[in-house]
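Problem: given the chain below (260 residues), write out its structure.
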Amino acid sequence: MTLRWVPGWNGLTEPEAVSYVAAVEAADGQELEHGVAKAINDFVLGCKNDGIWDAIKASCILAGARTLAGALVPLVGTAPTNYNFVSGDYNRETGLVGDGSTKYLDSNRNNNADPQNSQHMVVFPTLVNTTNQDRAYMGVGLIEIGSTYFFTRSGDAAARNRSASGNAGLTRGAANALIGMNRSAANEFIYRQSGVSQTISRNSEIPLSASIFLYHSNGFTSGALSDARLAFYSIGESLDLAALDTRVSNLITAIGAAIP
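Solution.
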């Protein structure tokens, strides 16, 4: 197959976007619509303009690609390992849906890969977790010191960020807005949902050494798996969560508009 995307061609200007689109097209076996490719390019450019691109170390756009294989091509970093997702779980406009039982991704990025006091971890759900039990969006650990995760419970949400204890009683968060955390200081971290950022006072500890899971937390029981539909995730160093929220929202909206 001959790939047509080169820098500057049809609006693609960012080398990272050009490489990513080419890799997705190779996995899909056909080209993406111009509007989908342009949306990806605009996302990369916007993140650079916001000064947050370099902080993204492991990320997948779980939408836009024509196939599940294409959706699991990493935008940044190492490709995730797929556990039990099949093509029927994937929707080009809205992302990849979990089953709350057996399906999850291993990001293949260790919780200790980023500095102790500089880390973000987010998802963008287009369908949020159901409310009948604990369901982890992503993370590592459970009760171990240095665990990092966020999950929903029957009536609220809980988060823990490289700390000795978690914080419960948080707002669950709604679809089509970023949910996640950012730590940029030793004594606190930010939890964000539905466009609202909340500062949580928790001292950092040495990060637990284990790979971060998506739709799960590495160390949670199987009953904590997510049944949400996710269209994006990102892991890396500290960044502006509000800026990333806006960029991802624009990205998923633009992808949906570009798909016939």
